[in-house]
Amino acid sequence: MSTGKVQENTINPFLNQYSCPVAGTLDVIGGKWKGVILFHLLEDKKRFNELKRLNSGITQRMLTLQLRELEADGIIHREVYPVIPPKVEYSLTDFGQSLKPIVLLMREWGEEYMETVLTQRQKNVGE
Questions:
Q1: Which residues contact 40 (CB under 8 A, 6 or more apart)?
Q2: Cα(125)–Cα(127) distance, integer angstroms
Q3: Which of 4, 32, 35, 114 is deepest in the core (most CB within 10 A)?
Q4: Domain ranges of the chain
Q5: Which residues, in sequence order, are CB contacts of 18 under 8 Å at separation 6+?
Q6: Would the keyword Transcription regulation be found if you checked this record's keyword annotation (predicted)?
Q7: CA 33 – CA 50 distance, rounded (Å)
């Protein structure tokens, strides 16, 4: 039976900042944009402006920030081509590909339950 205590990781103390593995996962892919960015990179590499167009509503600054964080975590690869004008493409790393089942399950959940969620939210607004 769990005591609710978080066991300290003596091998890698960096992991102690997360109360559970879900918290660590959400730190990597959570937020409004990261999951959507990953979804659009599942099948093929994309250029910055293509990602911006696919993620309607995201600012250039926010997209840059999210891409940098995903790159720093080893989830995506940023390929800079030595051409003029500059060409940069983003793709999932092999490590990032390990998130594919999670992203696809989130899509399935959204397809199945978003209408229910939106209806519930609308009911709550009226109360």
A1: 46, 51, 54, 55
A2: 6
A3: 35
A4: 13-126
A5: 24, 27
A6: yes
A7: 14
* Model-wide pTM > 0.85: no
Interhelix angle 100-126/34-41, nearest 10 degrees: 140
Q: What is the architecture, at CATH level 2, of domain 13-126? A: Orthogonal Bundle (1.10)
127 pLDDT more than 70: no
Query: Longest C-alpha distance within the chain, in Å?
Result: 61
Question: What would the pLDDT profile of 10-20 be if each residue is shown by its tens digit?
Answer: 655 555 677 78
Over residues 30-51, mean pLDDT = 96
Residues 6+ apart with CB under 8 A from 115: none
**C-alpha closest to that of 67 among 88, 94, 97, 95:** 88
User: Helices 100-126 and 21-29, interaxial angle, to 10°?
Assistant: 90
CA proximity to 79, closest of 53, 41, 121, 35? 41
Residue 37, pLDDT score: 98
